[in-house]
Design goal:
This protein is α+β, with helices and mostly antiparallel strands. The protein has a single domain, classed as STM4215-like (2-Layer Sandwich). The protein is 20% helix and 35% strand. The chain starts with a helix and ends with a strand.
């Protein structure tokens, strides 16, 4: 199973310039130049192939990546675009022992979601990661 922590650690390993903090679940203290990884709450059907779950060769994980940057809209857009391009150009991906088959970007670019209560600009990247299934 691929977890949010696995995905966070993979993004951290990409050495994205200037990112200082990485989170899953919740940005506790809202530090600038942070990336948060969250489950994407979308309802989709469970697909089980004919013959049962043992015949399923892949799994997928939908995630939302929050780029929580600073009080400058332009800086935030640039930081989010850099991460987006790095994610698009990454090849031969393995995350926590899972071979990544492909990634579907659910948005054409990082989405501006405005500012938080501290007036820090944020952008969101939504994606779906398909990976080779492992036996439990």
């Amino acid at each position: 199973m691929l977890t949010l922590a696995n995905i966070r650690d993979w993004i951290k390993s990409l050495n994205v310039e200037e990112v200082e903090h990485f989170y899953i679940g919740k940005l506790e203290d809202k530090k600038e130049k942070s990336i948060g990884v969250y489950s994407l709450n979308e309802s989709t059907p469970l697909l089980i192939p004919l013959g049962g779950i043992d015949n399923k060769s892949y799994e997928n994980k939908k995630v939302s990546i929050l780029v929580h940057w600073n009080n400058n809209a332009n800086d935030t857009e640039i930081a989010a675009q850099k991460l987006f391009q790095i994610l698009q150009n990454t090849k031969d991906i393995e995350i926590s022992g899972h071979k990544i088959l492909f990634i579907i970007f659910l948005v054409p670019e990082p989405v501006d979601v405005g500012t938080d209560s501290s007036r820090i600009y944020e952008r969101v990247i939504e994606l779906e990661i398909y990976y080779k299934r492992k036996e439990i």
